[in-house]
Structure formats: C-alpha cells, structure tokens
Here is the input.
Amino acid sequence: MKILYGISILAGTIIGAGLFSLPYITSIVGIQIMIGYLIVLGIVAILVHYFLGEISLKTPDFLRLPGFAKYHLGKNAEKIAYVSGILGLIGAILAYLILGGEFLNALLSPLFGGEMIHYLVFYFVFSSLFVYSGIKAISKVEFWGIIAFVVLLLLVFSKGFSHISLENIIFTREDSFDFFLPYGAVLFALWGGALVPEIEELLRGQKEKLRLVIPLGLLVSILISFFFIVVILGITGGNTTKEALVGLENYLGDGITSLMLIFGLLVTFTSLVTIGLTVKKIFWYDLKMPHHLSWIITCFTPLFLFLLGARDFIVVIGIAGAVMIAIDAILISLMYEKIKSKKVRLITYPLIVLFFLGIIYEIVYFIR
Here is the structure.
C-alpha cells in the first residue's frame, strides 16, 4: 500500500496548477506541438526525477535538495539550491493558491456572493492548517483524490462526448502563436521533484521501491495530462479559458461543471499542501528554523506576493518552471554525475544545456 500511496503522492502533486494551464496553452500552439513537448519533456522529467531518487537513496534522511547539494557538491551549490528551491516552490504554492481561489470563487460565489479574494483567503487558511499537520494527514487524501479526479474526468468525457470535435482539438489561436510558450508550463506541470524525499521517507523499509514509484508516478501524470488536454480542448475549443474548468459551464451545465470544480479544487489543494510541507521542512530541517516560524514563512509568503499583485498563474508557473525548476534540475544532474561516473555525462550534459537555454529564453521573454 505504501507504494500506491507513493505513486499517488507524486502523481497527485504533479497534477495541479500546471495541468490546468495546458488546454489553454495548447489552443495557442496546437495539439501537435503540445504532444511533442509532453513526449520530450516527459522523458526529461522521468530522467531527472530518477536521478533525484538515486541521490536521495545515497544521502542521509531528513534533508531536502539544498541539503543534498551541500552533501554532494559543497556549500556554494547549497546556497544556489536554497535560492532556486525556495523561490520555485513558493512560486508553485502561489500558483496553487491563485487557482484554488479561482475555483472556490467560481463554485461558491453564485450561491453566497463575495469577491475572489474572500474565497482565496478561506482556501489559504484551510490549506495552511494541513501544511502544519504533516504528510500523514494528506497521503490518503492524495490517493483517493487522484482516483476521484480520473473518474470525474471520464464522466466529463462521457457527458461532453457529443461536443468533442477534431476541429476543436486541433484549434490554434494563430494571432497569438508562440512556439516556446509551453516550455515553462509543461516543465512545471510535470515536476514533482520536491516530493521525492517525502516519498522516500514514506517508503521506510521499502526504499528500493522508489525506483519503481518515480517512473510510474510520472507516466500516470503524463497520460492524465494528455487526456485532460484532449477532453477540455475537444469540448471548449476556441472558448477554452486559462484555468480550463470554468469554460465547461456553457457546454455541460452547472452540475457537471460544479463537480469538476470541486475535484479541481481537491487536486490543487492536495498539491499545495504536499509542496507546502516540503518548503516547511527545508526551513525546519535544513535551515534549522523553529517549526512554527518555518510554517509561517512557507504559508504567508505566497499570500503576501498575491496581495502585492502576482495574480496571473500562467506567468507564475512559466517563470517557476523555466527558471527555478531548471536550476534545480541542473543541480540534480550534477549530483547524479557525482554519485555515478563520468560516463553519465552523455545524458546529464545535454540535459544541462537544455535547461540552461530554457533559463535564458524565459528571462529574455519575461524582460521583453
């Protein structure tokens, strides 16, 4: 059962804010290009997560990526890992917070009124309590949540089958085409590296199973992502919204849309909590901060950024994916080479070049 929980935690965390951005982005670049990104970056994600799994197995417990970097590469790498890891994960929490607030607002505001900020604050308070409580409180929710989400997605597929058309699936917004737009979002959507040490701890006594959990968790995530894109884009086509789910209302009615929003809320909630736990433990285990202070910094920083104006979740995940996650992936590749041999450079060096070019592109694109 621990293996299933491990797969569900990894897949359930990956299937979060990034997933919901993919149909809209696909409508901009086209389904063929998105399939290419899913295949190429899917392979890249499996490799890097596998590297991290091997590193985790050869590193003392109760450390996270910065601790890994110090152990294998030295203090300078540790400092880089702290900056990239914390900023990237805080960005991920911010994205989940934005999306969760939007889902909750779409679900409840027709009944109770109020502004999006009110629902976001409620969502923030509830999720923060789970971040405080620990991984055991969320692992079973993650397991059943991912199953429920798949079941509901199949229900949406069956109910919306008459609306699905090939024309919608291959729809492209030619006036806003951007070939490189999916890079950061897809990388973000397929990233669950922060949870690998958590899963290793969960598999205590069966740690060798981590080598099985990682590729299976990634494959589940890739397949669900592709199916989600086809279903949502097939139904809504040119009317696909940035958060994917709200646009379904005009085609499937309030009932199915509300169910989808509920489980979309569950998926983003569990992802926020599991990543929040990881950030908290970086402050707590690696930086030796008190537990309460670690929790406060983890939970309140994303809320503060939102209040300062960081509210476009596609922009947030693009930067987090193409820059912060890429830096983490470079460090992971270097650590993997350290624990193996120079022969793995045939794999790690091309990956490092890919991530480095992605960082440059995203920075130039953002400044432009």
In short: The radius of gyration is 19 Å. The chain has one domain: 2-273+314-367. The longest helix spans residues 75-112.
